[in-house]
Design a protein that fits this description.
Number of helices: 7
Order of helices and strands: EEEEHEEEEHHHHHEEH
Strand content: 15-25%
CATH superfamily of the largest domain: Nucleoside Triphosphate Pyrophosphohydrolase
Helix content: 25-40%
């Protein structure tokens, strides 16, 4: 057998092999250049409201590093099909969540040598707003309290049983995803004070009382009812549908929906 100066990886590939995508090559297969190539990914912080409490979507990792820990949905940049990181984020959410998210906004870039044990890495992170009913049944949302993900005792016990003790570390959240979540929570709460972002948590039609409840949940403070309705109607971000919602015991409430101008504005600003 002809000897080779290169060591083979477990798959029998050799240094410089072109049969694999760059992100799938092992350390031996990865082409060597003057400068090592960083790991480049996108991660998506998917928020929703459940019982008027902000929740974030996390998935249990099925591979190393951080096998068994919870992580944001994310993935590698596909250089042969992603035009930019926004395209990558849309593809990742479609592949992992099974839907096209209605709201997707770039949060920022998180990078460095210590965030991934495989080497120097950078993550371009995005914020998404989703409806739980539209996601795959396997999707799990966790409440965000005081900016941090809250896990009940049952979840903690299950995760610890599934993981090797040496892999547990100081956090149940993989990589630096807790830091990403912290920044995303701050962004989405701040933006709720001056924009129509909370509309993306709503159903297609809603009452102004429902909308005020969502704004209060996002802003974490009470809002004067009369002042809220006046400001919302003055801004022209919602319009009446002509229908009402009511019961025999209560006065019928008018139903509203986002205006086309509002949706177009967000599409042109975010997309």
């Amino acid at each position: 057998m002809l000897e080779t100066p290169f060591n083979a990886c477990a798959d029998g590939h050799y240094w410089g092999c072109n049969n694999l995508q760059p992100q799938d090559r092992c350390e031996i297969c990865m082409p060597k250049t003057e400068h090592d190539r960083p790991i480049l990914t996108v991660d998506v912080v998917c928020f929703t409201l459940i019982d008027d409490i902000l929740h974030v979507l996390l998935m249990k990792r099925d591979k190393e590093p951080f096998l068994g820990k919870l992580a944001l949905p994310g993935g590698y940049i596909h250089v042969d099909e992603d035009k930019n990181t926004l395209d990558a984020a849309k593809r990742v959410t479609k592949e992992k969540l099974g839907i096209d998210v209605p709201y997707l906004e770039q949060l920022g870039t998180f990078s460095g040598l210590s965030r991934d044990p495989r080497g120097w890495s950078a993550s371009v992170s995005y914020i998404a707003v989703v409806q739980p009913s539209k996601l795959k049944e396997t999707a799990e949302f966790f409440p965000v309290l005081d900016g941090h993900v809250w896990l009940d005792g049952h979840v903690w016990k299950q995760l610890m049983n599934d993981m090797d003790g040496s892999n547990f570390g100081l956090s149940i959240i993989a990589f630096d995803h807790q830091e990403i979540i912290d920044d995303a929570v701050k962004r989405i709460r701040d933006k709720s004070t001056y924009s129509s972002l909370p509309l993306f948590f709503m159903n297609k039609t809603f009452t102004l009382t429902d909308l005020q409840t969502v704004y209060e949940s996002m802003m974490q403070e009470s809002i004067d009812k009369a002042s809220f309705r006046r400001k919302i109607l003055e801004q022209g971000i919602v319009e009446p549908t002509g229908e009402v919602l009511g019961t025999k015991k209560h006065r019928p409430a008018r139903l509203f929906r986002p205006t086309e101008e509002t949706l177009k504005l967000f599409k042109s600003t975010i997309g």
